[in-house]
Amino acid sequence: MNIPPLPPTPRLHRLSVWQLVISVIGLVMSLFSLFGLVVIVLLANSDASLGSVDTSQISKLVWVVLLGALITLPSIVLSIRRLSGKESPQVQVSGKNLLIASLLTVVWVGCLWVGFKAQQWDLPNSLTSWLNIAIIALPFVLWLTIGRYKLPVGSQQRSWGLINTSVYLSASLIIFLEVIVVAVVAFVGISSLVQNAEMLPYLQLFQSQGEIDPAALKSLESDLLPVLTQPGFYVVIGLLFCLVVPLLEELFKPLAVWAFAGKNITPAEGWAAGMLCGATFGLLESLSMITVATSDIWLTTAIGRVGTGLLHVFTAGLSGYILAKTWQDHKYLRLSFAYLGVVLLHGCWNFFALLMGVSNLAVPISVPAISKLMSVSTWVLGALAILMAAGIWTMNYRLRKKSTPPMMPIPVPTASEPNL
User: Fold this and answer.
1) N or C: at which end does the chain have fewer Cβ atoms within 10 angstroms?
2) Is the model's pLDDT at 419 over the cut of 50?
3) Among residues 254, 240, 295, which one has the least CA distance to residue 115?
4) CA-based nearest residue to 93, from 143, 140, 146
5) Dist CA 311 CA 400 (whole Å)
6) Exposed, middle or buried, 243 (CB in 10 Å: 0-12/13-18/19+)?
7) Percentages (nearest 5) of helix, strand, coil residues in the chain
8) Phi, psi torsion values for 86, nearest 5 degrees
9) What is the pLDDT of residues 283-297, one digit of tens each?
10) Backbone angles phi, psi at 90, to 5 degrees
């Protein structure tokens, strides 16, 4: 009697396990943060001694953290389904999606106008918070739709896994490292000021337990002015924002794409995955910036973050594309050049964005070359944004041509064959 062989035991899908772990940790972190922020707002509103605390920005941050908690839920559900043997459907970015994303630009303009009038109309914080989220998120929808149009994107589980890994692993690591770098630079700067005998009375002033005299603060500002106008100060700031930040962000933004090393993903899939990682990081960064923006710089921040989001999507997409291509042909030198290229582009963008921001400061920079670059910084940023948008469309077009299978030749009937 022949006994039929037992069916093979299904192997545990390790990527789904890690996705579930990261998503659950992200949900717990978000809920704890949400609880803490709500407690701060309630205490500030109920305690008269804390009346000076501005809770409007904290209230807006509550909704951002709530959004972070909500995005973990699809990832948790889909990873559990995958572990139980049920695969999620594939994501299809069709022409209909492209049309909807294009029409959403009209919605974006409307949200931008309402957000600009929010303070004048005295809109509640909950409404302005979701307006901020829509204003930041809608351009990312457009970039992702154009860049991933008719490409093999992968499953819904993959998309949500990339989003959650980018938020709760990549972005957290980048922020941690950037805080360390800023802390080291600040420590070195303060240490150099401590050695200056002119700063000693001000340090003793801050160490005292009494009230700080506003006149002393005004005197401190005038004494620090020569330091802030020195070229070395701007060199340090420039190196920090135009070199260190791009090096860290471009290295770790596509971190989630590395989960597919050895999984034989195509360059088109790497491009799509990298774009989603960049969009997620850019969304998180832009939401944090617009949440703390005051009313006088809110509009410029909202518009400026569109270009910065485009930068994050484009550079991370290129990194994902090069990673997948390198895993296929093992040409690692190209990966190094690609990394240096996206760092250079990111650094160039930050340099002119920094110049545009410095041009609005009360302390002028008396360097003729820098002053000339300041005058054209807005035009340079606009030109870079146009080039990156064209780059996304071009990459999508080229990858679609490579992903489309060639048409089978139609045989031509010969004289001896009937033409049916």
Assistant:
1) N
2) no
3) 295
4) 146
5) 22
6) middle
7) 80, 0, 20
8) -110, 115
9) 999 998 888 888 888
10) -80, 150
